[in-house]
Amino acid sequence: MPAYRDIVRRIDSIKNTQKITKAMQVVAATRLRRAQAAVQATRPYAEKMLEVLQTAGERATEYKHPFLVRREGTRAVMILVTTDKGLTGALNVNNIRAGTRYMTEHYPDQQKYVTLGRKGRDFLVRFRRNVIADSSGLPDRPSIARILSGVAVALEEYTRGDVDAVLLCYAKWISTLKQEPVVRTLIPAEIPEREKDAGPRADYIYEPDPESVLDALLPRYVETQVYQAVLENKASEYSAKMIAMQNATKAAGDFIDSLTLFANKVRQAGITTELMEIVTGAEALRTAG
Amino acid sequence: MKYPLRVVSVERSLYEGEVEFIIANGADGELGVMARHAPLMTVLKPGPLRIQETMGGSEELLFVGGGFLEVLPERVTVLADVAEHADEISLERAEEARRRAQEMLAGTRTLTPAEEVEFQTALAIAEARLRLARLRRS
Fold first, then answer.
1. Distance of alpha carbon A83 from alpha carbon A139, whole angstroms
2. For residue A234, which of A20, A59, B58, B131 sits 20 to 30 Å off, Cα-Cα?
3. Which chain B residues are closer than 8 Å to A202 by Cβ?
4. Using an 8 Å Cβ cutoff, are B65 and B125 in contact?
């Protein structure tokens, strides 16, 4: 039987761990709110951009930007968004698994990866996947410039004709309890159709012309989607971390409870043994006397 | 006559309000937009965006690192790549960014075309920022 002191020491150490997990939970909750606000802030730009893209696309019907052309072939580059730090439950594992599985299924010929997030990068490098660019270590509210270099590499692969598609994989935030890995095709780009009852569109003067506007818009459109994915992944990260830390805090509490019970038992057993010894001793003295 | 103007970047909304006149740095040169301007969609080059709430009155300066300008009969929208208020631009930071870009371009390492474009843009943005910051100071 372990010594009573040792168990108490163990309880103290778990209490310290519990304090840390509790603190991490609170921090994650705060950061989650901030991350959600950051996602919200990108909406006006993204919505406007889509609207402009739709109208410009309707104007330049004969013109096919390379980003809109579907290519036969099964080579792809995936932009994989993961977190930089761990303690986020199964978030990254799910993401990486969904991403790599999709790639092997649909693009068996060649798979390249651009990683945004240390966890994904480390995993892919360990399993000798082809990581062609990496922009990890992003702050909570990164400026879009921080992710552009990675996106540029992926777009260049496509423009050069080295791959047939550009994909994006990240953790979609559904609720605090639920995050889901999502794989989306960035290129060839699908511009969602404008709603029919949106009314007639004003016919613009395009300067210099619809084609150049479309040329300039499409890369921005792709970049915006990646940027939004990074921010949304941040929100997912903090949700997952919050829940993971909540569970850890609870588990520590349960552990402390059962250990306290055990410690009491040990102490009681000690007292009982001592009492027995005293009684036996006294009894022995009496019979001897 | 005033019209509603909105300037948004991916990161945040920068300006929202009723204005009479703006001057932007379009692909084909500077252009001014007053109310009842014909519907227009243009690519913007890195440079200042000057906003006058009343024609000829005091000016609000925004820096736009490229983007798009959409003029509709009822409103005007600027989709800015990198946009910031002129007072947020620090001269030192802009200077440093330009130096970095120039070093990269002059470097011995051969650049891929994409990198070259990236640095050229960085350089153009840094220079436009500098011009604007100086304008502000004088």
1. 11
2. A20
3. 39, 72-73
4. yes
Kindly provide the b/e burial profile for residues A133-149, where b requires at least 16 CB atoms within 10 angstroms of the residue's own CB.
bbbbebeeebebeebbe
Whether residue B72 lies within 8 A of chain A, CB to CB, comes out as yes
State whether residue B60 sits within 8 Å of chain A by CB: no
The one-letter code for the residue type at A121 is R
**What chain B residue is nearest to A203 in terms of C-alpha separation?**
B39
Give, in words, the CATH class of B3-86. Answer: mainly beta
pLDDT tens per residue across all 289 residues of chain A: 688 999 999 999 999 999 999 999 999 999 999 999 999 989 889 888 888 888 777 777 677 788 888 888 899 999 999 999 989 999 999 999 999 999 999 999 999 999 999 999 899 988 888 888 888 888 888 888 778 878 888 888 898 889 999 999 999 999 989 999 999 999 888 877 777 665 556 577 887 788 888 888 888 899 899 999 999 999 999 999 999 999 999 999 999 999 999 999 999 999 999 999 999 999 999 888 6
Measured between CA atoms, how close is B56 to chain A, in angstroms? 26
Are the Cβ atoms of A48 and B39 closer than 8 angstroms? no
Pick the CATH number of B89-137 from 3.40.50, 1.20.5, 1.10.12, 1.20.140: 1.20.5
**B10/A227 Cβ within 8 A:** yes
3-state DSSP call for residue A170? strand
What are the extents of the domains in chain B? Answer: 3-86, 89-137
Q: Is A279 exposed, middle or buried, given 0-12, 13-18 or 19+ CB atoms closer than 10 A?
A: exposed
- Distance (Å, whole) CA A138 – CA A147: 8
